[in-house]
Write a structure and sequence with these properties.
The chain is mainly alpha-helical. It has one domain (about 15-315). The protein contains 12 helices and no strands. Helix 3 (about 80-115) packs parallel to helix 6 and helix 4 packs across helix 5. The two termini are about 15 Å apart.
């Protein structure tokens, strides 16, 4: 357990304001700009790229001026590994997976629409409503993949990479094994492709996911109040990264918390005013640190667990 962790108190008006409103304001302003930009003829890709970069810069700034934990500010030999995960699993695999599924499913989706005599996606709805619908639909498959990845050891070997860091900060938003990312993203994108969601809807859904994921993992203060009943944000997600397994196996939502509410896995205790600073995998203290070693973990799972069991034995003896 980390004895150095220290949560920095919100002792200024500005700190409390940022903790309460920085996420909501960033989400509203950047998605609003995205909608207007595409209405004015900018391509979804151009919009998504520019506003994703803006969201990164905003979160990096917030980590500097309003950090949550002093311990999480200190690099743990993780920056290069997280950067590689962000580039591969965060930036490359999702769009490549999306292209694959659009090619594979396009004909089937068109045939389904023709058979029904109507388009399946409500493209006449306001854009905000379409993106909200996309979030809710995409979350359902992702919720169950994520939950099973925690509950089934065969799947946990892939997802454990995401839970391996001993701190949370913006860059480990993308720390996923490529296979885990491919499957998780497939559960989200396939329903949207089948239903015929447009490129503009998918681009805005991706932007919302990017903004939310960065804030969800950021080392910045969060106190968003009633929005914790809408979004699966940092106050909930820090419990999901807790060392305590029964608390980590909660709050599976990627963006929304709605399916956790429906299936009874939302966790934000009223009687605990703090948020966990000790994060990681309690029974895998010897989890590999390097990128290539983490790629190999699912394929040497038994050995990884044996090495950690040996280290735990030495620690307790």
């Amino acid at each position: 357990m980390n004895t150095e962790a220290q949560v920095i108190p919100s002792d200024t008006v500005m700190s409390r304001f940022l903790a309460r409103w920085s996420f909501a304001l960033t989400m509203v302003v950047l998605t609003g700009i995205g909608i207007v930009a595409m209405q004015r003829g900018y391509s979804p890709l151009m919009m998504l790229t520019a506003l994703s970069i803006a969201s990164f810069l905003i979160v990096i700034l917030l980590e500097q001026i309003n950090p949550h934990s002093t311990y999480w500010e200190k690099p743990q030999g993780d920056v290069v590994t997280d950067l590689l995960h962000m580039l591969i699993s965060g930036a490359l695999i999702p769009p490549a997976t999306g292209v694959v599924w659009r090619v594979v499913m396009a004909g089937w989706a068109a045939s389904l629409s023709a058979a029904l005599g109507m388009g399946l996606w409500p493209d006449q709805w306001p854009m905000v409503a379409q993106v909200t619908l996309a979030l809710a639909i995409a979350e359902l498959g992702q919720y169950w993949w994520h939950r099973l990845a925690h509950e089934k050891d065969f799947l946990w070997r892939f997802h454990s990479t995401h839970h391996s860091p001993g701190r949370l900060y913006f860059l480990n938003t993308g720390r996923f094994h490529p296979i885990d990312m491919f499957v998780a993203y497939s559960t989200e994108i396939v329903p949207l492709v089948v239903l015929g969601a447009g490129a503009d809807v998918i681009a805005l859904w991706t932007l919302v996911t990017t903004i939310h994921g960065l804030f969800q993992h950021a080392n910045t203060k969060a106190n968003i109040g009633w929005l914790n009943w809408v979004f699966s944000m940092a106050e909930l997600h820090r419990w999901h990264h807790s060392l305590e397994v029964e608390k980590a196996n909660t709050n599976y939502g990627a963006n929304l918390i709605c399916w956790d509410i429906v299936f009874g896995t939302r966790y934000l205790p009223k009687d605990e005013t703090h948020q966990p600073d000790d994060v990681g995998i309690g029974d895998l203290p010897d989890f590999p640190k390097g990128y290539l070693e983490q790629l190999a973990v699912p394929f040497r799972w038994r050995k990884t667990k044996e090495e950690s069991a040996g280290e735990l034995q030495q620690t307790t003896s």
